[in-house]
Write a structure and sequence with these properties.
Structural class: alpha/beta
Bound molecules: NADP nicotinamide-adenine-dinucleotide phosphate
Number of strands: 11
Number of helices: 10
Radius of gyration: 19 Å
């Protein structure tokens, strides 16, 4: 039976450390959060981020814009926040209304305040192995592994999913930690044959129970990034948890696995942005 990699427990430690550093640092890092429109899921994410900020002694500023705000006004707000020295981190909650180009918004946020690490300059620096900020979800996975003493060096990491916010940067961070990395996607042939070769399997697909026990090698470490809402309202990961836990050596639960780590890493990046601004 697998040991549980608890994101809830590790994130609590990270938050404690951040709160301590904030107290000692003398300045309260400030995160500006922009939300456009009334998407209920985005509202929950933004409220959670504000709560997290309060918990560690950060300031948060919310900019709630109507769905019809338009790209020009949104970019103007970002420009104002970019040049405001009181603001250390800026994030714009995605998804945005259709008439707004998300890539233009991502590019507009100053790389020095881009605490999500989505700006092309920050993405490029991750590829070059010289990051300023680490993308929150993959960074959270790395922290979780490190905390459990699981080294990736020389191990085969298989990442299922190649999105720009999870799969690709996850692969880069694992490569940076000297893993041998395979990235799989919807066109991968013999997916199960590849996932069975993984010492560490990272699932970032967005389909409940997609990774079944026959796709996992005995003793593998299984990281479930997926968050899927079932019809009964419950959250479920991409991994068939109960069956896979019988075979894996370590496994992350959903909820309580990668999710809390992602939130903690956003605070870590905001603290780093504030420290760099002094
Ligand atoms: P995404 O942009 O939809 O990407 C999904 C990836 O899965 C794509 O690369 C896709 O391949 C691949 N895929 C889809 N069907 C597949 C199949 N049958 N076989 C192999 N690969 C397949 O999603 P995302 O933003 O990366 O998010 C993935 C999941 O993680 C979602 O459930 C999301 O909610 C969750 N998430 C969680 C956190 C957290 O903090 N825990 C953070 C972010 C995201 P193609 O590229 O070929 O289409």
């Amino acid at each position: 039976m697998a040991q549980i990699l608890s994101g809830t427990a590790v994130a609590a430690k990270v938050l404690e450390r951040i709160a301590d550093e904030t107290k000692r640092g003398g300045i309260a890092p400030t995160l500006a959060v922009i939300i456009v429109g009334g998407d209920p899921a985005s509202r929950v994410y933004v409220d959670n981020k504000k709560k997290d900020c309060a918990r560690v002694g950060f300031h948060s500023l919310e900019y709630a814009l109507p769905a019809d705000v338009g790209q020009t006004k949104l970019l103007a707000l970002i420009e104002t926040l970019n040049s405001d020295p009181r603001v250390h981190g800026i994030l714009c909650q995605m998804p945005l209304p259709r008439d707004i180009d998300e890539r233009a918004v991502t590019r507009a946020i100053s790389p020095a305040k881009d605490v999500d690490a989505f700006h092309p300059e920050n993405v490029g620096r991750i590829l070059l192995g010289d990051p300023v900020f680490l993308p929150c979800t993959p960074a959270g996975v790395m922290e979780l592994l490190a905390e459990a003493g699981i080294s990736l060096e020389g191990r085969h990491v298989v990442v299922v999913g190649r999105s720009s916010i999870v799969g690709k940067p996850m692969a880069m961070l694992a490569l940076g930690a000297n893993a041998t990395v395979t990235i799989c996607h919807s066109k991968t042939a013999d997916l199960a044959g590849i996932t069975r070769q993984a010492d560490v399997l990272v699932a970032a697909v967005g389909r409940a129970n997609f990774i079944t026990a026959d796709m996992v090698r005995e003793g593998a470490v299984v990281i479930d990034v997926g968050i899927n809402r079932l019809e009964n309202g419950k959250l479920r990961g991409d991994v068939d948890y109960e069956a896979v836990a019988e075979k894996a050596s370590w496994i992350t639960p959903v909820p309580g696995g990668v999710g809390p780590m992602t939130r903690a890493m956003l605070l870590q990046n905001t603290l780093a942005a504030a420290a760099a601004s002094i």
